[in-house]
Every structure is written in C-alpha cells, then in structure tokens.
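Annotators were shown the component list below and the corresponding predicted structure, then asked to write short factual statements about the assembly.
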Amino acid sequence: MTDAGVTTKKDWTSDQEVRWCPGCGDYSILTAMQLLMPELGTRREDTVFVSGIGCAARFPYYMNTYGLHAIHGRSPAIATGLAMARRDLDVWVVGGDGDMLSIGGNHLIHALRRNVDLTILLFNNQIYGLTKGQYSPTSEVGKVTKSTPMGSLDTPFNPISVALGAEASFVARTHDMDRAHMQEIFRRAHDHRGAAIVEVYQNCNVFNDGAFAALTKKDARAEMLIPLEHGKPVRFGPDGERGVILDDGVARIVSVAEVGVDALHVHDETAADLSVAFALSRLADDRESPTPIGVYCAVDRLEYGGGIDAQIAAAQADRGPGDLEELLHSLPTWEVT
Amino acid sequence: MIHTEELLPEVREVERIIVRFAGDSGDGMQLTGDRFTSASALFGNDLATLPEFPAEIRAPAGTLAGVSAFQVHISDHDITTPGDAPNVLVTMNPAAMMAELPRLESGGTIIVNTDAFNERNLAKAGYEANPLEDGSLDGYSVITAPMTDLTKQVCKDLGVKPRDAERSKNFFALGLVSWLFSRPTDPSLHWIREKFAGRDAVIAANEAAFKAGHAFGETAELSASRLAVRPARFEPGTYTNINGNTALSWGLVAASQKAGIPIFLGSYPITPASDILHELAKHKNFGVRTLQAEDEIAAIGAALGASYGGHLGVTTTSGPGLALKGETLGLAVSLELPLVVIDIQRGGPSTGLPTKTEAADLLMAHYGRHGEAPLPIVSANSPSDCFRAAYEAVRIAVRYRTPVILLSDGYLANGTEPWRLPSVEDLPDISVDFASVANALNEDGEEVFWPYIRNDDLARPWAVPGTEGLMHRIGGIEKEDGTGNISYDPENHGRMVAIRDERIKKVADSYPPTVVEGDAEADVVIVGWGSTWGAITSAMGRMRRAGRKVARVHLTNLCPLPNDLGGILRQYDHVIVPEMNLGQLSKILRAEYLVDAKSICKVEGQPFTAAELHHKFQETTQ
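Structure shown to annotators:
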C-alpha cells in the first residue's frame, strides 16, 4: 500500500451536487466525514461507502471514494460480501432507521453478530423521509403521520439496545449538532476491528423537525446528554451534579451529592458482558429524558473476514494451494484404454 | 487396475439391468444404492442413477410416506437415463413393496426382507393380506431372505448388540445383490473399512452382514437368477462417477482457477442445492470463501458485494430462493457486474415437492424481475454436464459483466453417471482484465474514469475498489450512458434499456454453431433443454431404430437463444418440445420464431422415462 499522502476535505468531496433538503441534518454529517477522512490516514481508493435506499443512502455519491448505492435494506449484506472478499478495504455502510431497522433489520443484526469488519452509520431521524413522511421503526408510540392518522401503535426499536442484543462488538451514539463529537466517534468506529455501529441522531427538518432538539440543542446538551467515557464515572449536568448508578443491574440517574462520587458507575467500554451497556441503553425511553452518548461498548473479538482468511490459510498450509487435477481425481477413478 | 471376479458358468449375461432399492427412510437405501453404483462404476459399467427420498428427515417408520428409493441403471453400452421400469426391486419392508411394485417390469425379480413383513408393518403399508402369501406376486420371480434375523445372527458372535446389528441389514441386502449381479466385493469391503474407520464394532457388523448376504446368494440355490453386465465400451480416458451438484461445484472451482479470481459463495441452505455449499466449503485451499447467509437475499447480496470487489460472486438456491433474489438480480443487471446464480429446480410452486425434480423455473429465470432486466441463462444436460454448464456460466458472467442464471434440477443434482475427466489444460481461457486506467476526458480535458464506457461486447469496465484513480459511484438508480452518474433523463433511460438488451443479445455471438443430431432428411425436430437430454436421447434412439427419421437440438444456452436456431427450426414440419413444465420453452420458441412448437409436458416430480417420451413422440408426429 502506498502512502496515503496529505489530503484535504476537497479531495474527499465528489463532483456531484448534494441534493438533500436545505437544512437537513445529513449535511453536517457529510461535512464531518469529509473533514475527518484526511485525518484517518487511509487512501480514497481503499475506501468504499455502501448504502441502501433512503435519504441517508445518497451519502456515497458525495464522497470521492468508491461507492455503491444498492437496494433497500440490503447494504449490510452486500457490504459483508465486499468486506469478506477484500479485507484491505475500509468499508463504510450508511443508512437510515427505515433502511437498517425495518426492511434491512435482519441483515443488520447478522452483520453485527458475525462481526464483519464494517463501519455502520445509522442515521436515525425517526421518520421516513424519502417516501415523504410515514412513521419509522424508531418513531415514538402515538406518532401521527400520513400512514398513522390516529397515531402509531408500534413500540419503537431502541437502536442501541438492538445492536447490543445482536452481539455487536462496537456500539456508539452521536448526533448531528456536534461535529467534533461525530468525528471522534466516527474515528473510533473506523479504528475498531469488526462490526462497528454508530447511531447518529439526525434531524429531518421537513418531516420530523426538532425530533431530538430537547437533547441536542446547544443549551440543552449539558443537562440532557450523558457522556460515556471509558474508565470514568458516568456523570453529567452543567457541573456534573448528576450521575448514573447501577441498581441491581438497572441503570438509574441520581444526584451525585446524594450518593457520592464513589457510588457512580464507572464506564468500562471493553466489558465483554454487554449487560451493563444494555442497561445504559435503557436509561431513556423517550426524547425528553437524559440520554447517554459516546461509546457504549468496544469489545475485541474475532473479526469474521479474518477468521475466514485464517481458515483458508490453514487449509492451504495443510493441503497446499488448490490443485485442479487433484480435485478432479479426488473420487474413485478408473482408466479406460 | 480393478480386480473382478471371473464370471461363473451359470451366470447369464445381459446388456443392462435396472435395479431399484426401496425401504424405509431409516433403512439406508440411499447408501446401499450408492455402494452398488460405485462397485458397478469401478467395474466399468456405464450407469445412471436416480435417488428418490421423502422430504421429511424421518417420516413415520414403515409408512408409505417414509419410503426411500434409489434406482440404478447399469449397462454394457452407452446409456443416458436411470431407466424406466426396474428389472429388479429390492424391498426392505411392506410399505416399499406397496409403493414400488407398480414400477417393476412384469415378470421382474423381487428381493424381499421377509422379517419386515409382520402384521404391524403390513397394516401400516395398507395390506390386508401378506403379499408374500396371498399369491399376488405370482408371475414375479421372488427371492426371500430373513435379512434382519440373519444379520443379527452373524453379528451375535461379534458381540454386537441386536439393535445395532439390525442397522447393518442394508449391507446384507447389498451383499446379496452384489452376488446376484456379479459385482466385485472388494470395493464395498474397502469402503466399509474407510467409512467407519475407528468404529471397529460397526465395521465388523457391516462386513459380516455384507458377507452373509453374499454367501446367502451363493448357497441358497439362487443361481438361476444370477446375472452379469459386462463393462461398457467407453472412450479412452480416466473416469469417475459423479453427481450433478459435485460436478457443478468443481466446474465453478475450475472456472475460478482459469479466470484467476477466487470464488465467493453466498448461500442459504435449501434442498436440493445445499450440497453445492457443502462441497465448496471443503475447498478453502482454493481460496474459496463461503458464507452461509441469514437468508436468500443476503446470500445473493453478499455474492454481489464480493463481485464488486473483484471476486467471482456465486449464489446457489432452488426455486423459492430464486424468487427472493429477484430484486438483487435487478440491481446486478443495473450494476453490470459478474454474478453466477444457480437454481437447482424442484417441484413448485411454494414449498411444492422439495426433494422431487421439475424444470418449471425457466420463465422465472427469463422474466422474474421488474423492469426490462435481461440476463443470460445456461442449463445443464446431465449430471456430469453440470461441470461444463458452470464453466460456461462463469465465462459469460465475467466476459459480459452480467448476472447469469444456471438452471439445473433435483434429478441432475443427485443423479450420477460416469464422467471422463476433462483435461485441465484444454479448458478455455476465461481470464479477467480489471480496469486500471482512466478511459475518458472530462469537459476540462482531464483524464477521468467513467464506469459505463463500453467495449466491443458492450461490457463495461470492471473497476474494483483499491484501484488508484478509478474511484466512482454506482447504484441502482438509472445511470447516464458513459459517465455512470445518476440520470433521470427520459431519452437516456431509453438508450440504457436498449444497450442492456443489446449487450445480452451479443452473448449469442460467442456460441459455437448449434449442433443438430439425428437424420438429415428428418421432418421432425425435438428441441429439449436441461435434464430431459437423457430421456430424449433414448426415446429418439427407439424412434430411429423403428425407421422414423428424426432430428434433435438440445439447448444449453437458453438466453439469448443461438443466432442460428430460428433457421434450423424452420426447416422442419414438426417442432416438438418435451419439458418438465407446462410448456415454457415452447412458449418462448413460438414467440421468438413464430414456429408451431408442440409441447410434451410432465409435471409430476419425476423425470420423463424413455418409454413414455417415445410413446408421446409417436402420438405427436403422426
């Protein structure tokens, strides 16, 4: 591999006109990515963005890398084949909540459990944008949309809980209003060996404007976002006056003054047992309660493509590289003269 | 060098024999049939086999639903089918007798395990009286043996428990049948020792049962029934006995080696295609990657992703799975990437008859996608021909950058025949050229890479990630001719639809001239495809021996059809198309060439027999 050389945002920006609605949260995610890329030390030709269908899925067209805009829900499966075949590549998967959690839910969970070397960005805006405003699998109960005029009845997915339930080895959350945080989380996800999934709270200003405003607007963040930092007590608030304890396996928000700093849960993102990370993911079940952001878990376990390559290497060491003549003669044969 | 027994004087030589082994699905009939076949193959007979088993893993024991059968046709001359009516029927229980007796030729030989013909089993099979006693088998030659008891007896001295001993009774049957048909015993004994290596009690029991069966034939005054089939005259070469799914897997491996790109197989288990996944998973030393995906859609998706990365993407399935893959096939058509999709057809619709054969997916392969989404279709004629068909599918896929559907079926998948091994050196060159340099100038006169610039075949460059300077974005949205950028322009869409169509039509330019077999002055041509090849060959032989002039074309490239086919068909008064569906190819031939193609159809989960096809040919051409 040649040196990645020095690149700038411009090198990572394609010549295609960006066609999201003005004001869409996707713009800030794209900018964060294009600014981050020069810092990752990877080459554009070794980078592939794979996507399904939806507003978020247009992302690959705007990156000056290889890009594959596939079909609805299937991007984790397609990217699995690519990443298994080509472990030299950086494979990113981008999709929305409908793409990844509804039509493609099965592919997402299996890519995560296999631990294929993918960096998956799930843009969660809790709505179907491209089809113009139906409720999504992450929409809140009672959501009134064109397809649910009397309010939706479906219990939503919590994407972090789903990912942890699917045995994901890296799970994180960030949001479209904080470029520095996005870049830090994207970098961590990129550097992780195996399947990494990042939920990005993303605003759809046309069909679901302000869905996360109570959490992500600048003056609310300190009160509402609980930063997860490895090895540190989980606490938040303008002066760190609130924190999280584990009470019989259940995460609860407490006043630090009342329980004392030593009682706070110390975040360990490397814990192989995902039950604590899961408990943290259950802290908030609405968009008006304090919510953890950052890296829930970053666990080192066998990366799938590497496992396959090791089996191939072992087979070749054991039997030598494949010999076609030998294969054709591997069943009983007889000669006719 | 194969050691064979000298033929004893009382042995009667025959040209061919069809033996059908039938018993409960727990009786090991597939194994027994397979062993008999292997011994015959090593002896040098030509042969063809037809395994038939229930869809249930263990249907209730002793019932008609649980009957498992294996038919083998052995011959001293070139044969093409597993045969019509068996000459010999081995029945391990009453249900097998009830289910299989109607197939036996009149006056044929029945070999019976009498121990299984007790009241309970007779009742389960629906017999009111024991057919061994009520005279209903008069006219057949019946050989009875208490196989279960005799097997238990010989095993007793070996310290094998009676219940374990009972499991070896199929080897008693194998021994008896081997004696009756003068099969060499060494291959079977050798096989028992290899197969059960490390399980000494099992080896001892199976060997004892096999030898007891053989001795039973020798001592029980069965000499009048003893038959032999001499080795067939084959073209010189090295032969192996192979089934369709194995030949197909090896064809893929061979093509991958010759193309210089590793196989990536994405597959979801489905009968009767799973054996290809099993076979390819064994060959990791060829760099083969296999993924048992979460579903059929992921299987083809992962294969397409691997193709995008420059590997040979393959997915294997049967009809229901092909239905699920339709959307991704459309994407592959739009992306113009190589992809091999293998459909081992089975009885449908829906779950249909999972373990039975049918060839009713041709129209789905042609048209089973939304939009104008043409792709090439290749089919296999016989078990060993699956090797050639797989190689051809890969050739077309990589040269024309297109998904290709390969149609095989359950009969080819599991059926076996002797195969003369091809010379590896003589396999055609199908090496791949990946794009490496810019291929266009942009408005500013800079060298750029456009993914939809085409070569003389109208194929676009295969530019894989990792290649410097060729970064590009492609997807399922309509692309601008040349640049590959998103385009919603109406005229551009019309042009791209036409180009994709023309590109697939051009595949026919790479075919050799169509082979017409048979009589030059024939007024009737039989057009077939797929596994009907063997039955058509036999039936046509019968017609010609009876003095009827007849020609035949057997298509292996079903889309696009050969350029010379229309001219050929128009030379004949009668065009007859036998198919294991309701007339799918004949529909296409009528539409393409305006010829009065007549269908002969059979959709019963069974291949055509030569006799019924012969009869239908006579009817149709009168």
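Statements collected:
1. Residues 200-219 of chain B form the longest helix (20 residues).
2. The CA atoms of residues 346 and 358 of chain B lie 5 Å apart.
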